[in-house]
Write a structure and sequence with these properties.
The protein is an alpha/beta fold and 291 residues long. It contains ten helices and 13 strands. The strands form three sheets. It has a five-stranded mixed sheet, with helices on both faces. Helix 5 packs across helix 6 (196-204). Residues 8-11, 129-130, 179-180, 183, 195-197, 200, 241-243, 246 line the site of adenosine-5'-diphosphate.
Length: 291
């Protein structure tokens, strides 16, 4: 069996995968210290109980994946950790062959495999989570780019006068729409520490400030989808991540998308693989790479 690992800015998950089913799934928090040694320990604790039944490992990880290393576009998402030798660390822990892919690229592949529209050739997957990640399927193929950067649409800018992003640019989609951005703006408005989950709870209780913060995020994602449509003629957009999957979020993205000219609107869907899109997508990608 294969072990799939999902490394996100907030949580780590791992599972054995058999026929696209998760077996013995495990979870941990992503270390916030920014120390490579802490991430190594967390990964070791996470996968050790799974190793005896596994013959290989595939990883869906936040960050640019290139030549076996994880390099952050936005190091803030990993407690400041900027560069990490992910492949060799996992090979040393496990003694197994290891394949790596960006988390949103992996989820994009997983979701593309689920699409009912079999004639769809161009799809975007967007995760609204700790950051905002994206994976692109173009002409039926996953786009990773020369250096793994392809699809990092969370770092396309929407407002040059907007908030500074951890990547160094201003007004990135991620700085306006991510779970982190939702938490930061709400914490400023409410003058108390709130995370995105708490903001959604307030939104569902009808609080106007919470609604405004969530709408800033949803509107940024709708703008991004219009841009991707103009650039790549995307036919379907699939939304995932804990914010993207939160109750009521997709409706708000849809609301803002409908305010755009029809040419810039896309068929909008929720991730069918839900929170498991990264894990299952990585496993499906590893399978087809092997074939
Ligand atoms: P990761 O980025 O590690 O892949 P998630 O997809 O869970 O993890 O995204 C983490 C972000 O989602 C955080 O900002 C967190 O506050 C937010 N979040 C987690 N659960 C919920 C929820 N039920 N509703 C809305 N936001 C959530
Ligand atoms: C960031 C970037 C992307 C990632 C996206 C979503 C880093 C460390 N990550 O834009 O590579 O796909 O976040 O990641 O720079 P998640 O952790 O929110 O799922
Ligand atoms: Zn950015």
């Amino acid at each position: 069996m294969i072990i799939a690992i999902d490394i996100g800015g907030t949580k780590l998950s791992a599972s054995l995968i058999s026929d696209s089913n998760l077996i013995d799934g495990r979870r941990a928090s992503t270390p916030k210290s920014g120390a490579a040694s802490d991430l190594i320990v967390a990964l070791e604790q996470l996968i050790t109980p799974l190793l005896s039944k596994a013959t290989s490992i595939v990883v869906a990880s936040t960050g640019i994946i290139n030549q076996g290393r994880l390099t952050a576009v936005n190091p803030d998402n990993l407690g400041g950790l900027n560069d990490f030798p992910l492949q060799s660390v996992l090979e040393n822990i496990s003694g197994l062959p290891v394949k790596l892919l960006n988390d949103a690229q992996a989820a994009a592949w997983g979701e593309y495999c689920q699409l009912a529209e079999k004639n769809c050739r161009n799809m975007a997957f967007i995760t609204v989570s700790t950051g905002v990640g994206a994976g692109l399927i173009i002409n039926g193929e996953l786009l990773t780019g020369m250096s793994g950067l392809a699809g990092h649409a969370g770092h396309m800018t929407l407002d040059v006068n907007g908030p500074t992003c951890g990547c160094g640019r201003s007004g990135c989609v991620e700085a306006l729409a991510s779970g982190t951005a939702i938490g930061q703006l709400a914490s400023d408005l409410y003058k108390t520490d709130l995370d995105a989950k708490a903001v959604f709870e307030r939104y569902h209780q009808g609080e106007q400030d919470a609604r405004m913060v969530i709408d800033r995020s949803a509107q940024a994602i709708a703008e991004l989808l219009g841009n991707l449509r103009a650039l790549l003629d995307i036919e379907v957009a699939v939304i995932g991540g804990s914010v993207g999957l939160a109750e009521g979020y997709l409706e708000r993205v849809h609301h803002f998308m409908e305010q755009q000219p029809p040419l810039f609107q896309v068929d909008l869907q929720l991730a069918q693989l839900g929170h498991e899109a990264g894990l299952k997508g990585a496993a499906l990608w590893a399978e087809q790479e092997q074939a």
